[in-house]
Amino acid sequence: MIRSATFGREELTSGALMVLEPKFTDYGSITSADLPQTQQHISSHALLSPRSVLSLPQIEDEPKTSKGKNMSQVDLYQRQPLLPNASKNDKNKEYFIDVEEEDILQHKSNTSNGHTRIEMPLPTPIREEPRYPQEKWKTFFAFLITIISFILTLLSLSLVHDRLPDREKYGPLPDIFLDNIPAQDWALDVSEYIIMVAVWLMIVILVLHKHRFIVFRRMFLILTLLYMYRAITIFVTVMPVSSKTYYCSPKSNQTTSLEVVKRIVQLFSGFGLSVNGKHTYCGDYIYSGHTVVLVFSYLFVSEYTPKKLYLLHWAYGLLAAVGVVMVQLSHGHYTVDIIIAYYVTTRIFWIYHTLANNSSLKQHSSNNYLGRCWWFPCFLYFEGKVNGPVPRQWPDWPFPSPLPRRFLAKSRES
Question: By three-state DSSP, how is residue 64 classified?
Fold first, then answer.
């Protein structure tokens, strides 16, 4: 007798069928007790204990439940596949979808090549706040703090002037540069003219920056730190006048509060420069304010302008170097004043921007040693909403004139 095996049953040559009985319990699913015994045992478990039957009764077309009644719509829905294949006869056939699923998916089904495609539209991402907020009022607040720190520096100079060592008894301290180069009084004026050009050009460049309020806020805060440190170093250590030819105003026998206020107003009106004849008080040596401004302007211009303007960066660096040399030629500062000023300016600038450009450092942590700076809480207040490095988007015309905007936009694209 030749047998041909099929899935779930075996066909005999005599026409009889062998049905394999599964060894599992019926939990009252779709199969019913009213169906013939042979129909209940037809399943995918065909390799279990066999039992032969002589004939297979005809299965009714209409499915029934375990109670013998016609299958309900819910049972029919449970037996349907999740993604039925659509055919030509099923185009108008309706499928039941849960209300919650319909609200979440809001799908649109399209049938092509016998497959169903469900389109799920993604929601448009919404940015709650800009990445580089302007925060103009913080910039104005930083400006006020800078004015206060500058006034403190002038206050320190006004008090130190009367504590200067007598120039007739104490000459300049030994200095390797000043001892070998004769004083050139004109060089100090050249240095201060260079400072004026560098500062005003830096202001114009930063005004044209797209994120100008963030840049100016950083400029004010770094200047605040530099001038506050300078006010302390000027006051604690008084050094002899470095130049034998520089004019210093006579000392006052009694330094009253009114006299100090007059000195501050005089120095402030001349922006701390001697080229206009306002800076006639001596003693502000450690550290050099001229060097601070020159190095500071170079760092900001090179940081916030595009790298392709390398000629501008080199020109600014050269301008700053020439200004520092002019200060030395005039004997306006000791060499150690220049070195300390360069070191303090660059370190504060680099530390500040390292913190500002790394979001992971904008939090207190046992491993974040930069967060131990005393001014770190103020930094978090001013820089907390600025996410990442400020891009070099320059130039950006700040005024409502359409012609420069078109011109500058074309220049940026080129």
Answer: strand
CA angle 175, 178, 184 (to 5 degrees): 165
Q: Angle, nearest 10°, between helix axes 185-207 and 212-236?
A: 150
Q: Please provide the size of the chain in residues.
A: 414
Residues 292, 347: contact at Cβ < 8 Å? no
DSSP summary character for residue 277? T
Residue indicated by tokens 């169903």 = 116
pLDDT tens digits, one per residue of 60-80: 444 444 444 555 655 655 665
pTM: 0.65
CB 236 within 8 A of CB 159: no
Tokens of 289: 């304010």
Q: How far is the C-alpha of 201 from the C-alpha of 203, rounded, in Å? A: 5
| CA–CA separation, 67 and 75 (whole Å) | 13
CB-based contact 332:290 (threshold 8 Å): yes
Please choose, from the candidates 146, 124, 130, 173, the residue with its C-alpha nearest in 3D space to the C-alpha of residue 228. Answer: 146
Supply the residues annotated as catalytic. 290, 333, 337
Tell me the per-residue pLDDT of 121-137, one tens digit each, with 9 for 90 and over.
666 655 555 578 888 99
Are 240 and 169 spatial neighbours (Cβ–Cβ below 8 Å)? no
Residue bearing tokens 């006051």:
235
Q: Which residue has the tokens 């001349």?
A: 270
